[in-house]
Amino acid sequence: MKTKKGFTVPEIFIVCAFATLAFILFFLQKSNMNAMERDEDRKTAINAMYYALEEGYYVEHGYYPESISEDVLTVMDPSLFTDPFGFNLGEEDSSYSYEPANCENGKCKEYTLRTKLEKEDDFVKRNRN
Hints:
- The chain is of the alpha+beta class and 129 residues long.
- It has a domain at 39-126.
- The protein is built from 1 helix and 4 strands, in the order αββββ.
- It has one helix spanning 9-61, and strands spanning 64-65, 96-104, 107-115, 123-126.
- Strands 1, 2, 3 and 4 form a 4-stranded antiparallel beta sheet that branches.
- Strand 2 and strand 3 (107-115) form a beta hairpin.
- The longest helix has 53 residues, at 9-61.
- The chain starts with 8 loop residues before the first helix and ends with a strand.
- The mean pLDDT is 92.
C-alpha cells in the first residue's frame, strides 16, 4: 500500500484562512496603536501650549494673547504647532484650536485649547488664571 505525502486541500484551506485572519487582526491592531500614538502626540502638544501660555506668556504679560503661534510662544518647540497630519494650529483642517475669550484690545482674560482625538473625546485645556 502506497502512502501519499503532502497536504489535502481542506488542510491548505484551513491554514490559509487562519493566516488571513491573523494578518487582518495584526493590521487592525497596528492601526489602533498608530491612532493612539497620534492622540498622545496631540495631548503632548496641547499641554506644551498650555504651560507656555500659563508659565511663560501670562506671567510675563498678565493676560493671554488673541492668537498663538511660534512667534508668540517662543519658549516651546515650534514643531508642536503642527498636528500629526501636518496642519498648523489655526489652519482649517488642523486638529488643534485656540479659542480666546473676553478679549479687549488684543488682551484676553480666558482661552480654551482643544484637540480632536481619534480614539477618545476631545482633549481640552482652559486657562487657570
